[in-house]
Design a protein that fits this description.
Blueprint (H helix, E strand, L loop, with lengths): L1 H24 L2 E7 L5 H34 L6 H19 L9 H38 L8 H28 L9 E7 L17 E4 L5 E4 L1
Antiparallel strand pairs: 1-2, 3-4
Helix pairs in contact: 2-3, 2-5, 3-4, 4-5
Length: about 230
């Protein structure tokens, strides 16, 4: 009687297994992954950073040219010791302005690192290099002002001092925009949805799915078969 029971139940088990395989063949896997691309709002902030960087490059370039002229005119005087640091400070502003020009529009992580670098360099420029530059150019201007042979060069020195103040204002605006006006979160990443039909017994990545519910058993005839 037991043999008759297995004789009738085995065909039903095989039919059920074939139906399960057909259902697996028609299954669809959905995977949501971040694309790494910046949202439109972040791209807008990148453009603002580049504008601020361009302004710093423009002011820094003018300061470099004016400082270089002042340095050349003081090669044979003690004022060269003042003009060399002024030229170095001008170069710092150009370097700071170049940082946002390299900001990527594709990855959020690189944008965050470059934004931090731009903010730190702007703060250092406004807090350290501008006061040094302003003080030295003011001293050089006094030398030229009271020099009866070169009394017209003080105009160049005080022009450099005035531009250094303008550079400090732009640097403070840049640092404030980096710190307060642009988002730091990475939640603005765009998401992409991938859909793929998986073959029977395979997942989305092509790996075979092991069915742990299948176990061998022996029927009354002594032959091995499989069942759920």
């Amino acid at each position: 009687m037991t043999a008759n029971f297995f004789y009738w139940i085995i065909p039903f088990i095989k039919i059920l297994r074939m139906q399960t395989i057909r259902n697996n063949e028609g299954s669809t896997d959905i995977i949501i992954q971040p694309t790494g691309n910046l949202a439109p709002q972040q791209v807008f902030h990148v453009k603002r950073f580049k504008i601020l960087g361009g302004v710093q490059i423009g002011l820094g370039g003018i300061l470099v040219i004016m400082s270089l002229v002042q340095l050349i005119m003081s090669l044979n005087s003690i004022l060269i010791a003042y003009n060399i640091p002024i030229l170095i400070c001008s170069g710092w502003f150009v370097m700071t302005g170049c940082l946002p020009l390299n900001m990527s529009n594709n990855t959020e992580s690189s944008l965050k690192c470059q934004k931090i670098g731009f903010m730190v360099c702007s703060v250092i420029g406004a807090a350290v290099f501008v006061p040094i530059m302003f003080s030295l150019t003011f001293i050089v201007g006094l030398f030229h002002l009271f020099d009866e042979y070169q009394n017209d060069w003080y105009i160049l020195s005080y022009s450099i001092a005035a531009l250094s103040v303008a550079e400090a204002i732009v640097a403070v605006i840049s640092a404030s925009y980096c710190c307060c006006c642009s988002p730091w979160e990475t939640s603005s990443q765009q998401m992409a949805v991938f859909m793929s039909s998986s073959p029977a017994g395979m997942n989305f990545y092509g790996n075979e799915i092991q069915d742990t519910n299948i176990r061998p058993w022996m029927d009354t005839t002594g032959k091995y078969s499989t069942a759920f």
